[in-house]
Recover the amino acids of this structure.
């Protein structure tokens, strides 16, 4: 490790502006946080490093909707889906509650859906601004430093919400955090998602008989050295995705989405390792897409449309909060009076040291027990204290980097739960300002009640959800 350092010269940083609430990160959690804060009367700025909103849904092509029972679909999530429906930007929700509910979104139209919701709420948006530091005075966060098109600027705020996914603001503010699985700095595998364009939508899924020539062709491609990456030469992952054509985007997009890729043993906070992971994931996509185009019926005229702008990242920093979502909370479906969001997705740890080990331990005693409970509408609560950063006042956190243990984070990182924690953080920020107290001093009870009131006013986004007895 290179321990050489240099000392930056001290300098005055121009202030770009001051707001009640600055939300950093325009992904699912950050968009929901900014909308909730603005609706509650706070002058709100949403800061995003890219030129669009949507975060991982767009930049990492996580264009899938997944839930085991729909209980984790709350509040702003339904509004987001309604906005996509108005644009024909989401497929219908299908599946069996307790087994898996699924749909897919059009990642391009996601940008417009969030633009609409944020603009209607009165959120101001700053694009191409990368968080570079935190302004901390007297133990409280007073804003952030951001690298903008004009250079480094200070963005001041009464409350700051870290929705970066990587806990960047909290790290710069000195809030402690954890990473990894307890033994390694890597917690889960990374995935380079890719899309195939000009797909024949009438073909697939395939029967076992139809898979035989595809499997034989893969054996031949491996023997000739055309397919070389271990995640593809183990065959099961590639053939499994081909067999089911698991992810097709909304109907008018003649595309299929692939989550075949696994990049292992990567410290997501090591810049060199993360750079190498991008290149490895892209090579996996090239090999897989070329094989599929040559040998899969319905893909003969297809092409590799794109790979995700950033490799898919499931876990990095887990920020310390006033409370922590424990693994036991998630496994045993614990409820708390200060619960501000629900989690009901599987314990979904994508192994960082295996190309073949399942992410979800299907068939295990633990999974079978949880599956039966989820089918009945079970969930666990994410406590208010898990979104309040420890040690620094006026700083909240939302999304996958909130305060959680490793296995719990593997469940709550799902996008709808991130939105629910963001909605709670935004409302908490506004309420704490209105009451002239810090977020750590805020009584969670009125927050929980107001969240329930706001969420009850939102019509469920899919008809299937209206038919589930545990949601009525």
């Amino acid at each position: 490790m290179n321990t050489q350092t240099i000392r930056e010269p001290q300098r005055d940083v121009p202030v770009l502006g001051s707001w009640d609430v600055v939300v950093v990160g325009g992904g699912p959690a950050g968009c929901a946080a900014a909308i909730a804060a603005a609706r509650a009367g706070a002058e709100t700025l949403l800061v995003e490093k890219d030129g669009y909103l949507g975060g991982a849904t767009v930049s990492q092509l996580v264009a899938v909707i997944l839930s085991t029972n729909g209980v984790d679909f709350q509040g702003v999530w339904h509004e987001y889906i309604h906005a996509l429906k108005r644009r024909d930007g989401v497929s219908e929700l299908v599946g069996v509650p307790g087994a898996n509910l699924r749909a897919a979104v059009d990642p391009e139209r996601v940008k417009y859906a969030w633009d609409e919701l944020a603009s209607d709420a009165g959120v101001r948006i700053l694009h191409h601004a990368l968080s570079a530091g935190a302004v901390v005075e007297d133990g409280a966060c007073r804003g952030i430093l951001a690298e903008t098109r004009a250079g480094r600027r200070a963005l001041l705020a009464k409350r700051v919400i870290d929705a970066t996914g990587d806990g960047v603001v909290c790290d710069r503010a000195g809030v402690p955090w954890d990473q990894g699985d307890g033994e390694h700095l890597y917690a889960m595998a990374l995935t380079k998602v890719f899309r195939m364009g000009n797909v024949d939508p009438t073909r697939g899924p395939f029967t076992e008989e139809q898979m035989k020539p595809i499997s034989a062709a893969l054996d031949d491609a491996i023997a000739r050295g055309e397919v070389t990456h271990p995640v593809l030469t183990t065959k099961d992952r590639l053939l499994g995705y081909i067999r089911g054509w698991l992810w097709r985007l909304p109907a008018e997009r003649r595309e299929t989405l692939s989550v075949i890729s696994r990049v292992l043993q990567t410290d997501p906070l090591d810049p060199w390792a993360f750079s190498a992971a991008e290149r490895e994931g892209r090579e996996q996509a090239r090999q897989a897409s070329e094989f599929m185009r040559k040998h899969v019926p319905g893909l003969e005229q297809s092409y590799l449309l794109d790979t995700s702008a950033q490799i898919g990242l499931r876990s990095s920093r887990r920020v310390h909060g006033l409370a922590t979502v424990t693994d036991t909370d998630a496994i045993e479906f614990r409820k708390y009076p200060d619960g501000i969001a629900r989690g009901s997705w599987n314990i979904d740890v994508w192994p960082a040291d295996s190309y073949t080990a399942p992410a979800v331990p299907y068939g295990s005693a633990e999974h079978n027990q949880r599956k039966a409970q989820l089918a009945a509408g079970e969930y666990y609560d994410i406590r208010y204290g898990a979104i309040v950063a420890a040690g620094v006042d006026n700083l909240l956190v939302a999304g996958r980097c909130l305060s959680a243990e490793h296995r719990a984070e593997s469940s709550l990182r799902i996008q709808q739960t991130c939105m629910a924690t963001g909605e709670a953080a935004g409302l908490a920020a506004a309420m704490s300002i209105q009451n002239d107290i810090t977020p750590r001093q805020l009584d969670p009870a009125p927050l929980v009640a107001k969240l329930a009131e706001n969420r009850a006013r939102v019509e469920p986004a899919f008809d299937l959800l209206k038919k589930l007895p545990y949601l009525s």
Summary: The chain has 15 helices and 18 strands. The chain has a mean pLDDT of 95. The first strand starts at residue 15 and ends at 24.
